[in-house]
Structures are given as structure tokens and as C-alpha cells.
Amino acid sequence: MKGRRVKIAGMGKAIGGQKIYFGEQIRYRLMPEQSLLDLAEQAAEQALQAAGITITDIDILVCAMATPLQAIPCNAALVHERIAKGLDIPAMDINTTCTSFISAVDIFSVLVENWRYKRVLILSGDTASAALNPNQRESYELFSDGVAACVMVAAKEEESSAVLYSNQKTWSEGAHDTEIRGGCGLMPVFDMANNNREDYYFDMRGHRILKLCARKLPGFVEQCLQESGITREEIHLVVPHQASRALKIIMPKLGFTEGSYVDRVAQYGNLVSASVPFALCEAVETGRINRGDLILLMGTAAGLTVNFLLLRF
Amino acid sequence: MKGRRVKIAGMGKAIGGQKIYFGEQIRYRLMPEQSLLDLAEQAAEQALQAAGITITDIDILVCAMATPLQAIPCNAALVHERIAKGLDIPAMDINTTCTSFISAVDIFSVLVENWRYKRVLILSGDTASAALNPNQRESYELFSDGVAACVMVAAKEEESSAVLYSNQKTWSEGAHDTEIRGGCGLMPVFDMANNNREDYYFDMRGHRILKLCARKLPGFVEQCLQESGITREEIHLVVPHQASRALKIIMPKLGFTEGSYVDRVAQYGNLVSASVPFALCEAVETGRINRGDLILLMGTAAGLTVNFLLLRF
After folding, report:
1. With a threshold of 0.90, does the pTM exceed it?
2. Distance from CA of A40 to the nearest CA of B (A)
């Protein structure tokens, strides 16, 4: 299977400077003087350095983030200002909420393969702490603020790196299971009052999401494995969205045993759109993933949107 | 020139039900009981009908909108719930602010050409009225609320329809010339106070944008024409972003004389991300554009981001 001949040439990551413990669970939040743009700058620098290139070599800057930094302009324009000011690199956001990174890898692997763009810088990350509700313990104690960055380029003839298979689906029965109702177009910021303040916080119905995932994911995973012709045993490592501590319950139900997938929920929590690339970056840095390894990126996101992407690293 | 063999198979549009006059300038805003999702549903239905297909034929639902309906989930998941609930069509946002539609056509023309997706439904539109500042007359009197929809499919062997050339650039010197600073990640909704309330409104520095456009656009247009090998005379009609009444000043400076481009600013104002597809849809409906015509879609957006896309309709 040849696939789309692209390579992740370098990755980087940065996390909020404030370390918090909830029991044994560790979370990181932005410090008062920190902004997500600071983390984006750090992660991008690392990714470019790891890829052995500089920002001037990049053809497009993609923010694959779940939440807006501002309602206008798009996140990529604001990150561009930080790391590419004075250059004319196009800036674009791709958003499928928590699985935005995988969607961006999927889409831009086709664009790189077809020479629309040659070198892509993808950034994922969110300021979860900006909207966490202290009264909703389940979500308040779950999220961290962080950014991960990734440089994707065309693979050379002699390299095996490729996107071998990708699939994405959305079941909007889950559109309101994870949401922030207020603050944007549908419920403007100026409509906030004492009796609807809760609508402007992040709101998660964990039990409903779990039920919908349990109903939809097994069939989706089977379909993807069948279509790709890859067996679970051939996959070196699964990098799933670090959704919650329920990862340990969901993954075995999908046929992935302990040790076959990354679970860093206790160490970092849910990093929203940065979850998958952050875990991928860490696994590469610690030598758990090496060139040529077959990796499965598996995303679940508010929507409910899911991604399944097989990557020859 | 063969280009990417895709076709806009159908379009649709819908506009806010409240008609307002500022002198001779006509604007449309959502009525109190109306939501952008109502307009999205209408526009999508028209586009699907014009293309002779139904929602079940669509492979991916793309919201190419400038502003979020909610901070979570992405706009496409919310539109999916309206028009595709119960189906598993993937939902994704593409955002380059006001030029999101052209970016989406650019990207998805490559994806359709390469069979990643076969039939794409793209929706563009924003609730500009949710954040307009009554104290900033220039912007308060400029914008309308509306949605345009477009079905893109692979062109048949005998059809000439294609994307012949595309280019996008971002100059982030303009990142803060058009913006909404507050309400999202960088300046959370809960930080709004009496002394920073203005930061949560849309803020436009028209004069600065014009100056930056005047500096960047002529060279960009020349480069695109040269690279594409197309002359201004070969272009049947230019559909530019309906940015403001300054369109009449900018377009001649780019070598496009009156009548060679669409100018519907007086009739509709600036429809944000819907501007280009709304004007394109109207031009098709009124017979100003016909199959086989060479069309230039030209976007300018907060960022500053610009798009140049040559389309054989």
C-alpha cells in the first residue's frame, strides 16, 4: 500500500506553566501572563528545528484548533503575526473540534501529495481554561492548556513515510453533548446575564458522549480496518484522543489492549485539539515511535466527529 | 489548461429577514426569531435542489464561515444537526475569515479531483449583527447577515468546468485591522467589564485596510495573472469580496473596469464569508454567469488574507 507519500518531518509541544493536581491527576493551565500564542510560538519553533527548516520554508500555516482565539480573524492569522510577520505565507484554520489535527493531516496529505502545498506547519491547541466551569467538576478537573506543532512535507522516494488510510465521520446526535453555547454567533456575548451565565461555560455531558461513542465507534473502527486491510496486530501504536479517564474503558472495547495505545490522561489530561499531536510528539521524543512504524491516529470530538488515520511514520 | 476537473453543480442563498436602509444602502439582518442555522438550511436546500441531488448524496459538509456560531463544537457540526441529523457525513470548518469560501473551493477542488471526497456541500455565512458596534458607524452600516451554499462535484469528461488556478497569501501586518478582540480564548467572555466592553464588538479600521490592500493587492494580482497565463480580457466576470463601497476605488486600481466585476455593496452590503458565494449565486441565477464562462473569484479578508481563484464555471 503506497498511500499519500507525506512525512511528519518534525514536531514540537508546549504546555501551560501552571501545574495543578486533582488527586493524582496532573493538569496544566496558562499562567496569568501567558497566552496560547506564547505556547504556539514555542511549539512551532521546536517543530521547525526538528524538521531542520525555518519558517520561510513553510508554504502554509494551518491552525487545527478547536476553539477561536478571537471571533475575527481566524487563529492562523494571529499565529502568523507571532511567527511569520512580514512573510506572505497563507494562513488557514481547519476545525473539527478535538480531532482537528487529524483532519488537517488527512486533508493536507492530499494537498502535499498533489503539490498544492509543499511544506505545511500545523498547530493545534486551545485555552481550555478560558471557559471551564468551576461548578462542573467532571470537566473542570479534566482539561489542560497546551499546543502541539507539526511540519508535514512530501516524503522522498526512498522513504516509507505515508498516510495509508483516512476516514472521518460526524454524527450530529452528539452536537450538544460537548459545547459552549454562549459567547459567539448563536448566543452573543452581550446577551449574557445572571440567569444564563452557565451557558457561557464549557458544558460536557460525559455519560451521554460515552454512550454515543460506545454505539458508533466499534462499527467505525471495524469498517476502517476492513477498508484499509490492516489488522490491529500490525499497528505499532495507537494514538487516541486523550478524551478522559474513560479511555481505559473504551479502548479495550475497540479491541485495543493496554499497552497498544497511548494513555497520558493522568499526566496531562485532555488537551482538546492538542491531545493527539501532543501525545504523538511525546511518543516520538521518547523513542516509543520510530521512522517506519505504523501508527493509528484516532480522534473523537464534539460533533460527534471521529477520525481514523493510518500513518507510516 | 486542464486544471482541477470540478464543477459547481448548484448554489443557493438566504438572507436575514429584516431589511434596513442607511440612505440608499440596503442591509439585511436576522429577525429576532431567526438564526443563521435557518438561513443555512434554506441555502443548502436550494443548492442541493439546483444540483439535482439530496443531502444523502453529499460526502462532506464544509462550513467555510468567518465567525463561530458557538466556540464548541465547530459550525459544520451544528449545521449537520440541522440538515443531516442521523447521517454520518463528516463535518468540517475551513476558516480564512471573509475569504473562507474561496479557500474551501481551492482545497476541496484538489480533494475532489483526487477522489478523497466526491460531492462537497460548502456553506458560508455569518451573523455579523451579533457583534456590530452602534458607535462605529462605518462598520455598523456596512454588514448584512446571510448564507450562501454550494455543491461541488467532479466534472464529467465532456464538461469544461474546472478550477484553473488558485493562490492564497496572508500578510499578518493586517491581523488587527479587522477584528473582534474579546469573547473567545485570548480575552474570555467572563473578563468583559464596563471599561473594556468595546473590545467585544467588531472593530474595523477601514482606512488602514485600504492602505494595506493598495500596497499588496496589485502585485498579487499581477503575479496570479502571470502564473495562470490568463489576461484580464479573457475573464468573463470578476466576483470580488464585497468589502465596502471602496470596491469602486480598489478594482480599477487592479485593472478591472466598471462592469467587469460584480458590485452589489449598495444592494446587500458586506455579507462577510457569504459575500463572494452570495454574489456568485446571484450572478448565476440572473444569467450573468453561464456554463463555460471564465470567472475570477477574488477574496480579501481580515488577516490580511487574499485569494485569487480562476474558475471555468
Report:
1. yes
2. 13
